């Protein structure tokens, strides 16, 4: 039991790291989550939230340093919520992420620790993000873009984000300078006007820019100057005037200049991206992950990908099956994916819009599904999707996960039908606590 300092403060020692990169210690058997505290470090903390099953603390004074602690390269690390692991040696980050996957699969699926392979490191430890989505605020009469302070809705203005591609950062600063030159205002929920968010994507020397605004007209002079930025091939406005909306984009788009698609190379594939399309933020690592996933699948007749987005994985697997069907719930992404199939002369690859579980059942009534690839959101596979997999019973399932906990729970639900053949974690986002994992499941004989 940890020593109590007073009613306001206590000493706690971190025993391990949590899924958000926070230190986890214990008081009277209750877990206490403390940001910026590494395993083995003891700190005097203030309890800022106490619940029946857990508590949260804030460091007043760190009493010792872990030998794995390093000075963060970023001056606002710890205040910004973006890179909680920048204080941890890179090799230790990889080990920590492997342990997160191991513990989740032990806890939920009873999988042996040794089944999880070492984490595949990212080719780029910094400068790997090809997109930013930064809220805009007004400070001292100037517009600033930045990231949210940990645990708040306050914006920390960012001079330079080290995990953004350097070209993306240069463009962000140039655009923010122009927005201030034309004296634009930040979003005002009372009038539902002004700038809300700056969204930028940079790939292969070309930029895509979206200004998310309220009910505002953008000055023609601003648009003309933005059009002159070298490499800017797509300039869009998204009008999202609903002050209660938690969605980044509304359905109201306005093309201000250029094309509404951004061409991008992914391995041997040529893809076109709409502004709203999801694309992996760390492209070099995404290529490694997709290539590994492809190498695990045996050639077959019919392959189905659930949650297929703009089709990158399905098209990367185009040589693995005679027929490939991707399922995605967002029509715009489906349209984008079918464009990409045509672009890559993949006539045997097609994409349909609908619920993944229902569409997979429909497909299975017409043909036998040999392999399934799933790349679900952090919530994992829902009950309907698990049931659909149990009914279709493909010989192989490749599960690409971004959440070890939901991965473990889903494997547990499939264990009686499938054997876990391999577990390969990937460090898609260095300096954060996120880890992607490929799992190959093979149907029991």
UniProtKB/TrEMBL annotation:
<feature type="binding site">
    <location>
        <position position="307"/>
    </location>
    <ligand>
        <name>S-adenosyl-L-methionine</name>
    </ligand>
</feature>
<dbReference type="InterPro" id="IPR012340">
    <property type="entry name" value="NA-bd_OB-fold"/>
</dbReference>
<feature type="domain" description="TRAM">
    <location>
        <begin position="2"/>
        <end position="61"/>
    </location>
</feature>
<protein>
    <submittedName>
        <fullName>23S rRNA (Uracil(1939)-C(5))-methyltransferase RlmD</fullName>
        <ecNumber>2.1.1.190</ecNumber>
    </submittedName>
</protein>
<feature type="binding site">
    <location>
        <position position="280"/>
    </location>
    <ligand>
        <name>S-adenosyl-L-methionine</name>
    </ligand>
</feature>
<dbReference type="GO" id="GO:0070041">
    <property type="term" value="F:rRNA (uridine-C5-)-methyltransferase activity"/>
</dbReference>
<comment type="similarity">
    <text>Belongs to the class I-like SAM-binding methyltransferase superfamily. RNA M5U methyltransferase family.</text>
</comment>
<feature type="active site" description="Nucleophile">
    <location>
        <position position="402"/>
    </location>
</feature>
<dbReference type="InterPro" id="IPR029063">
    <property type="entry name" value="SAM-dependent_MTases_sf"/>
</dbReference>
<keyword id="KW-0808">Transferase</keyword>
<keyword id="KW-0489">Methyltransferase</keyword>
<dbReference type="InterPro" id="IPR010280">
    <property type="entry name" value="U5_MeTrfase_fam"/>
</dbReference>
<feature type="binding site">
    <location>
        <position position="328"/>
    </location>
    <ligand>
        <name>S-adenosyl-L-methionine</name>
    </ligand>
</feature>
<feature type="binding site">
    <location>
        <position position="375"/>
    </location>
    <ligand>
        <name>S-adenosyl-L-methionine</name>
    </ligand>
</feature>
<feature type="active site">
    <location>
        <position position="402"/>
    </location>
</feature>
<dbReference type="Pfam" id="PF05958">
    <property type="entry name" value="tRNA_U5-meth_tr"/>
</dbReference>
<dbReference type="Pfam" id="PF01938">
    <property type="entry name" value="TRAM"/>
</dbReference>
<keyword id="KW-0949">S-adenosyl-L-methionine</keyword>
<dbReference type="GO" id="GO:0070475">
    <property type="term" value="P:rRNA base methylation"/>
</dbReference>
<dbReference type="InterPro" id="IPR002792">
    <property type="entry name" value="TRAM_dom"/>
</dbReference>
<dbReference type="InterPro" id="IPR030390">
    <property type="entry name" value="MeTrfase_TrmA_AS"/>
</dbReference>
């Amino acid at each position: 039991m940890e020593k109590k300092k007073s009613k306001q403060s206590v000493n706690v020692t971190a025993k391990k790291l949590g899924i958000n990169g926070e230190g986890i210690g214990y008081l009277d058997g209750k877990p206490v989550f403390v940001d910026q505290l590494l395993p083995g470090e003891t700190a005097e903390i203030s309890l800022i939230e106490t619940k029946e099953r857990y508590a949260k603390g804030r460091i007043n004074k760190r009493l010792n340093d872990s030998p794995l602690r390093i000075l963060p390269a970023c001056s606002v690390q710890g205040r910004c919520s973006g890179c909680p692991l920048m204080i941890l040696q890179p090799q230790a980050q990889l080990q920590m992420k492997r342990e997160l996957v191991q513990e989740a699969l032990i806890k939920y699926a009873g999988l042996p620790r040794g089944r999880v392979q070492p984490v595949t490191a990212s080719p780029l430890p910094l400068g790997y993000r090809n997109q930013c989505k930064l809220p805009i605020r007004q400070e001292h009469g100037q517009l600033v873009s930045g990231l949210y302070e940990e645990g708040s809705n306050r914006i920390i203005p960012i001079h330079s984000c080290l995990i953004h591609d350097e070209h993306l950062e240069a463009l962000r600063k140039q655009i923010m300078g122009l927005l201030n030159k034309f004296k634009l205002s930040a979003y005002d929920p009372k009038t539902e006007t002004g700038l809300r968010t700056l969204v930028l994507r940079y790939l292969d020397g070309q930029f895509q820019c979206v200004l998310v605004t309220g009910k505002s007209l953008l000055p023609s002079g601003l648009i003309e100057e933005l059009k002159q930025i070298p490499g800017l091939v797509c300039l869009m406005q998204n009008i999202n005037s609903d002050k209660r909306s938690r969605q980044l984009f509304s359905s109201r788009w306005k093309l201000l200049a250029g094309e509404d698609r951004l061409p991008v190379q992914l391995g041997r594939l040529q893809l076109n991206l709409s502004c709203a399309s999801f694309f992996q933020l760390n492209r070099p690592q995404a290529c490694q992950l997709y290539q590994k996933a492809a190498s695990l699948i045996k050639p077959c007749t019919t392959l189905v990908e659930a949650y297929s987005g703009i089709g990158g994985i399905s098209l990367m697997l185009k040589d693995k099956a005679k027929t490939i069907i991707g399922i995605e719930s967002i029509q715009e992404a489906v349209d984008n994916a079918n464009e990409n199939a045509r672009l890559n002369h993949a006539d045997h690859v097609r994409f349909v819009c609908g619920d993944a579980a229902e569409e997979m059942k429909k497909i299975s009534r017409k043909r036998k599904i040999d392999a399934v690839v799933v790349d679900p959101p952090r919530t994992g596979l829902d009950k309907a999707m698990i049931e659909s997999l149990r009914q279709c019973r493909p010989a192989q399932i490749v599960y690409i996960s971004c959440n070890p906990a939901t991965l473990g729970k889903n494997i547990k639900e499939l264990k009686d039908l499938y054997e876990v053949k391999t577990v390969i974690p990937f460090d898609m986002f260095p300096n954060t606590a996120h880890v992607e994992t490929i799992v190959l499941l093979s149907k029991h004989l």
